[in-house]
Amino acid sequence: MLKSILELAFDLMAEHGCVRKYYFSVRAGYSMKIAIISDVHGNYDALSAFPESYDELWVLGDLVNYGPQPKEVIDLVRDKATAVVRGNHDQCIGYGDDPRCSPQFREMAEATRRFTEAVVTSEQRLYLCSFPLKLDIVRDRTLFLLCHATPSDPLYEYRTEASDKWKDDCARLPADIILIGHTHIPFVRYIDGRIIMNPGSLGQPKTGKPEACYGVWDNGRVHLRTYSYPVGKTAEKIRRMPVASFIQQKLISVLQAGGMPPQ
Questions:
Q1: Which fold has domain 31-257?
Q2: Which of 10, 108, 117, 248 lies 20 to 30 Å from 258, alpha-carbon distance?
Q3: What pTM, to 2 d.p., does this model score?
């Protein structure tokens, strides 16, 4: 089968180191349905309740920390996901680095980091280390760029929907769609024919509601969606975590309110 012009162009770019990794749809004209999730943060109840059917599952990082079941989340993602990129909390557990959390979350992050480090296996830690910082993927003649935070700082930069920096990224990057997470706040922004989508957080949303957030690419269009999961069940598991009771309550409050922890 003859390659498309786009496929040939990417072969040439790969030879010169211009792209990191890429995949192509195997059936011409076949429109895939891709589920896009981010920031699961050890919330297995939210992940296992995922309601959407899909052809592929893409994960934009931060499988671990904050939540009570990082081991189960890692195993389910490893079993189901087609593509995963590394988040700052994956970097933290995999490599021992500071996740550089915002001040409101720093104390919770440090306490749950110790818990996560104690329960994950060495094999799971290596799996977190294996995630690339960025991925380029082609599906149905559409080029996607996947990263956790931003293309220029894939681990740590917090960038809002309104930032002018997205215009710079769209001007310098060949991607048709840029997929990012990290802020836990979903949005879709269109710039000069390009799309930037943040699906929000599956396991610790900051939308003012407890519903898990995710995104879908289906038939050439992007969608933001939410669903309910048993938050109370997750709260009970948090109460059994070996962290201070005030940390437990903050973690539960964040899930129940879908927002920032109480002061």
A1: Purple Acid Phosphatase; chain A, domain 2 (3.60.21)
A2: 117
A3: 0.88
